[in-house]
Amino acid sequence: MNFTKVLAPVAIIVLTVGAWRQFGWAGIALAGGGIVMWILLHFTRMLTILKKASDRPMGHVASAVMLHAKLKKGVSLMHVIAMTRSLGRLQSPKDQQPEVFTWTDAGQSSVTCTFVGGKLTEWALQRPE
After folding, report:
1. pLDDT under 50: residue ranges of the chain
2. How would you class 16 by CB atoms within 10 Å of its CB: exposed for 0-12, middle for 13-18, buried for 19 or more?
3. Is residue 10 located within the same domain as residue 47?
4. Which pTM was predicted?
5. What pLDDT does 56 receive?
6. CATH of the domain at 116
7. Which domain range does residue 63 map to?
8. Distance of alpha carbon 60 from alpha carbon 64, whole angstroms
9. Same domain, 92 and 49
10. Are residues 82 and 49 in the same domain?
11. Whose CB among 21, 42, 64, 70 lies 3.0–4.6 Å from 109's, allowing a Cys bridge?
């Protein structure tokens, strides 16, 4: 089970209840403001990453070998897009799991990444002969 999907809502509820018990309605307003700020920070980060990715060709990366070396199991698709500053070329059927994306560099080396539930599960480097 993925505890990170459960941890954030539980933390929000605990924070809100604690703020209510300590400060009443002013605590609820403070906790609500903090939660909205946290959501806006994540939304702004996502938009910044996608804006940078929109300025580059789809499926292009500066160095496929360096990307291959930096990848780690379990990172999110958004993290990989931030690393490459490019959207990957979708190789699998749209809206089906697992999602397979490919990034290629100028030397025609490419990295193929497989994502299940938005998390990286495996990747492979292909180099031209």
Report:
1. none
2. middle
3. yes
4. 0.79
5. 86
6. 3.30.1450.10
7. 57-126
8. 9
9. no
10. no
11. 64
